[in-house]
UniProtKB/TrEMBL annotation:
Residues 100-127, 149-173, 186-213 are annotated as: Disordered. It comes from Cochliobolus sativus (Common root rot and spot blotch fungus). This is Stealth protein CR1 conserved region 1 domain-containing protein. Belongs to the stealth family. One of its GO terms (biological process) is carbohydrate phosphorylation. Residues 149-159 have a biased composition (Basic and acidic residues). Residues 318-437 form the Stealth protein CR2 conserved region domain. Pfam families: Stealth_CR1, Stealth_CR2. Residues 274-301 form the Stealth protein CR1 conserved region domain.
Amino acid sequence: MIGRSNALYRSRRSFRRYIWALIIVFVFCLWNSSTVTWRKSANSEADLEPSTSNPSPETVEAIIEAESPRAGRINVRHSHSNLERIWNAEAPHIVLSPHSDTQPRTIHNHNVGSSVGGGSMLTTDDDTENHDLDGIEKIEEHRNEGGIEHATKLSHPDDDGNAGFESGDIASNENAQIPIIDAKAKDDADDLAQSQDINESQAPVEKLETQTPWSEHYEFPSWDQCEELKEKAEGLPDLYHVPFEVSVKDVVLEGWEDEWISKARYSGPKLDEPRIDFVYTWVNGSQQELVETMKPYELNSSLNDADGVWIGSHGSNRYREWDELRYSMRSVEKYAGHFTNRIQILVNAFKNAKTDDSSPTTYGKQWPHWLRSGIEKVQVLSQEEFFGSEERKCLPSFDSLTIENQLYNTKSEVDRLFALSDDMILGKPHSASDIYSPLFGPTLGFKTNAYNTLQPPTEKDAERFGEKPFLIYTSWLLNRRFGARKRKGQVHFGHSLSRSIAREAITSFPRPALRSAYQRFRGETGFQLYSWYIIFHYTMERHREALLWSYIMMRSDSNNDGYLDWNERQNVMNDLAEGLSNEPPETFRRRMYYHVQDYLEQAGLKPPVVNNDILWTSLDGPIMTKDLDCDAFDTEDCLAPGFSISSSDAEARSPIFSTATIFDRVTRESPRCGDCLIKLVLNRQRAGLEPLLPHPVQKAKQRETVIKALIKFQYTVVNPDAMFYMITDAEQAEHVLLRPYLKQNKKAGQICLNDDVVTSNKHDLEQLKTVMNTFFNGILPEVSSYEV
């Protein structure tokens, strides 16, 4: 259904004959149960108060505040019981001030499993309470009696509580096998030919943007400076909304983008292959100077215990050096050299050992012993050279999450980067479109397990294994910003990122971002912003948000008065009716993800050769609409009560029809309703996003802003050609690596080798090192141009 006063367009959706009987039965049951209560949010007044916490003026938030002084605030709980308090804001971009009762508190005791305050236990699907709700809009902590219940009827396969929700991390090696090519000679010849083509077309390096200079006379910040940073972080809000007009200032259109986005048609010039930076995080934990540098920070860490158990155990596998970086860089030069812009290696600084007490203290930065110096294309950057001016006040950091949250600050002449750990190597020739293309954006890969945190994370969540505490915490932040839904975790391989999007995504959460910056060791505060998870989902949510912003705030509001009058609401109803009258989107709409190769070749770009199992593109619509059943969509429940009735505002304007209110309703309060609105309206056209865009002539400037946003936040979801191995011992490594890859010529696009060795026996470790060296030299025997 689409509205109470409109005819249905698919007979199988008609339930009108039963509606009154259902209503009578429902009211009778409620009357007998005596459970009907009306609750008003205790914080409704506070939610409408202006924010008193201002982000640092050195961040993008201060710029936004100065440039968007009229941005209004919208009640988080969206109560319809007090209509006069709903503001008719001109822009939907809002600041949500933190509330004291919704924050996970800092863990203060000295145990790894230290306590966290705030909130009942409601996190992920392996808890047995009520976190996995089929109707994710029914979150009492986030809404009042005026909230939207109808979205529970809009079903999606993810609603199945057993459909891989928090069901595990990475598929086992046996369950994630990559097809093995039996014809070894032919395969080797193909690889050789492709790698020769790659090496013959190495991209030149352009002039680099200014980087913070390194000096051996640098001094680590004092403890007092770090304490000041911690105090500053606590004064910042959790969330900040960046207006699209500000977000797209860095986007320059070339002329082909409008037709591409609106009609899914490319008629522009041949495009240049994009150039991409490869950025590594690397540490040599066995270097004695680093061990000595790290020691006082370990002793003062909140994780330290009286018995010294944490200090004795936390770093052995995290900082062990297997020489993986050497071979990873060999693989990049061999398989991706033709589109590599720069290689940046992010390292720690350390105090040099003094020869005598009178000599001055000097500092060095870690450097791979095999890496040649003076290579223009390769940079070794200490944290002091790329951390932000505020964030560097708590250096040095030995927490990879802290470092990864600052990757966007690395300087380069290109925006795109591929973030790698040193234990990740490429196993096949790549094209740039395996990572990013101008037509389809970055490639994103996801696991099957999903997270939907509806209340502040708890102590139990902080004690979970591996990355789960950070996924749970970041899910909670994303739910508050974009609305509650299950969001899958990212695969544990290289990550395709935009520096500008990463900056916006991280700084949109000012307090969590700055709290992350002062963590020197993982787990010190229990929770931390998880960069990959938040950047991936921020990208997808902002693309979806841009479509709804375009349709509600611009296309539907034809007179730009911030209100949908009856004529404008009728146009929305007609759009929905046309979309419903066509065949289901799954058969009516052209599936762009089947034609990625054709379009890239048409634009003169090489198609993907590794990540060619493409599951979705943003040109098909938001990924959230995939497999979504919108048969029960109703404008009265999803857009506004009385939306389809002319008498609703015949005598006076109703605040519930303000574009800001409807926008907030479909973007954040009831995400499933917004997903269905997009899916049904797009079904008016077989390809492209035109049905959601502003008029090309009457609203040309607004349309340009929308096109820029959709280009910036476009993406492609893939099933990556990759293998992940938890290496435990020499025998296991020989079984999963040497036999398949060296004897049977197995191939994988990417290989990640995670150190999960627990033994400290020197003989066992030497055996394992021998196996690893045999494997690395077997698949990548050619010395790279970067090595001594």
